[in-house]
Amino acid sequence: MTDLYPVDPAFASQARISGEDYQRDYQTSVRDPEAFWKQAAQRLDWYKAPTRIKNVSYDLDDFRIRWFEDGELNASVNCLDRQLEKRGDKTALLFEPDSPDAASYPVTYRELYERTCRLANALRALGVQKGDRVTIYMPMIPDAAVAMLACARIGAIHSVVFGGFAPNSIADRVADCGSKLIITADEGLRGGRKIPLKANVDAALKLPGTNSVETVLVVRHTGGAVDMQMPRDRWFDAVVEGQPAECEPERMNAEDPLFILYTSGSTGKPKGVLHTTGGYLLYAAYTHEAVFDLREDDVYWCTADVGWVTGHSYIVYGPLANGATALMFEGVPNYPDMSRFWQVIDKHQVTLFYTAPTAIRALMREGEEPVKKTSRKSLRLLGSVGEPINPEAWRWYYEVVGDSRCPIVDTWWQTETGGIMITPLAGAIALKPGSATLPFYGVQPALVDANGEVLEGATEGNLVLLDSWPGQMRSVYGDHQRFIDTYFRTYPGTYFTGDGCRRDEDGYYWITGRVDDVINVSGHRIGTAEVESALVAHPKVAEAAVVGFPHDIKGQGIYAYVTLKAGEAPGDDLVKELVAWVRKEIGPIATPDHLQWAPGLPKTRSGKIMRRILRKIAENAPDQLGDTSTLADPGVVDSLVSERKVK
Ligand code: WTA
């Protein structure tokens, strides 16, 4: 029997989108995308309304993705200026600090507008022009949004780097896009601990390739001591002071870049996913309103960090373009205790709550008591994003957090897609725990086999998308060929997501996880190649192979096999040293959970590492190794298996 949660009639009677609406509009959106998106584009304010709506070809010889290509607009104007008349005094961002003892405060649309304009003027005065790249390495504070919007206002392309990344990772990202300016803070605060953001930037800028940076703006946040290197480093307060609270926005073409966001892929270094202005903003705003069933008086909280795409689309651009109130939380779910999320919900009367399965699983482990001692009556809808949610966690979220009152939207999407792609609409689509259910408007999923044959009916395969949608990424920054090769060459004529997926008898989609060499750790994408190259950069390491393995809380953990150079002795101290090394090279999110010494790695005769086998060993499923006959030295596998068993 399928576990089905029908649409709640009480919810549906108030909802923006009914089941009939969805069926009808979905059909229109795929039958006549031009008409559908032309109409949808009216939700944005344009200097020049687009007349050419969609110009897309996935044909490798004639490749192009363009939406609204003759339209002109400015993203910050859509998020700020146009809200002033009706919502000037409405809270745009509601800041909740790391510690419940520190003061939370609202930032109204008018204040956000003025702060953005001041910074935008300051950036212009510092020589930042349309098309220049600006790196943002910030804690979860309203100035992070101000920084993004100020870039958007003057047409500078922002590249937000997650505050948990180490200096090397910052340097790689700065170098790749040639940033002219960095906006950071003295320190961040998470769970009572200080994150040395400015010191990390200092260390990054000592690394090669970062000469493009002329200025570092430093927000005073914790007041901690920092080393200011003049004239490069400037206090944020000092440069915005005296700037006018109005700033002439840049008129942007719909296809002008809005931002770059680096994400991990199967191979090589992280790629700079490039999003453009019109299509991205429209898609973020539309999905935010529809999926969260947004109402004027909602208090909406997405727990993601602005360093990830979820923070871009569903803390900053989507909610602000919709005139919503978005809570911005600097802290973590378990500080000062396990009730923190639920207390914040009560304190600010949050109505819409969007978080990740990994957080739910971690909180679930602590039992119901920390949840039950709070009210949560204000909640009316819950969301999940970042990785598959196991049905057990789904039910706990539904029953314990939502008191069996609030529908859950399990939203599947990617950095590359810009916004939510497969999701329930709570007034329209019955829920099944663990399924992202059905496609959003304009989204045409298909499942293909290894040869690219489209599979019909209830089946399992690789998830591709048959046609474009406005929020689609447009390029890999600086490497358009890599964009085409990565996403459009595997199954020609389609966009390949890198995810595996099952479709059931009702046509519902169940994402099964990555089918490439990307590991999803607590909803963060880590490329195995990145961790491997960090490991082999250590002087004692000859070779490394990294795979994912199932992890109760994180979804997937990182399992590293390491071969030492001749003469180096393995030992527990060296395990610790290598784990610390990876944290220092990439950042704490890439910390290996297991490190196994490998006298040799299983390779084909042509020298290719057989990860399939390594994955099975990491999963502790040596009986499922499959065919090992093509290995150059099958004996290697036996020794790895026997080592693994000891643990
Ligand atoms: C996974 C995050 C199952 C998936 C928005 C995807 C999910 C990758 C879900 C993108 C979900 C995201 N159910 N899997 N609801 N949401 N994923 O780029 O593997 O950080 O390809 O974007 O996360 O991660 P990214």
Summarize the structure.
This protein is α/β, with parallel strands linked by helices and 647 residues long.
Give me the secondary-structure topology.
Blueprint: H1 9-14, H2 19-31, H3 33-40, E1 54-57, E2 64-67, E3 72-73, H4 75-87, E4 91-96, E5 105-108, H5 109-125, E6 133-137, H6 142-154, E7 157-160, H7 167-177, E8 181-185, E9 188-190, E10 193-195, H8 197-204, E11 215-219, E12 233-235, H9 236-240, E13 252-253, E14 257-263, E15 271-276, H10 277-291, E16 299-302, H11 309-321, E17 325-329, H12 340-348, E18 352-355, H13 357-364, H14 369-372, E19 381-385, H15 391-401, E20 408-411, E21 445-448, E22 454-455, E23 459-465, E24 475-476, H16 480-488, E25 495-503, E26 509-514, E27 518-521, E28 524-527, H17 528-536, E29 541-551, E30 555-564, H18 572-585, E31 594-597, H19 611-618, H20 635-646
Parallel strand pairs: 4-17, 6-7, 6-8, 7-14, 8-11, 11-12, 16-17, 16-18, 18-19, 19-20, 30-31
Antiparallel strand pairs: 1-2, 3-13, 4-5, 9-10, 14-15, 15-24, 21-22, 21-23, 23-25, 25-26, 27-28, 29-30
Helix pairs in contact: 2-3, 4-5, 4-6, 4-11, 5-6, 7-8, 10-11, 13-15
The chain binds 5'-O-[(S)-ethoxy(hydroxy)phosphoryl]adenosine (WTA).
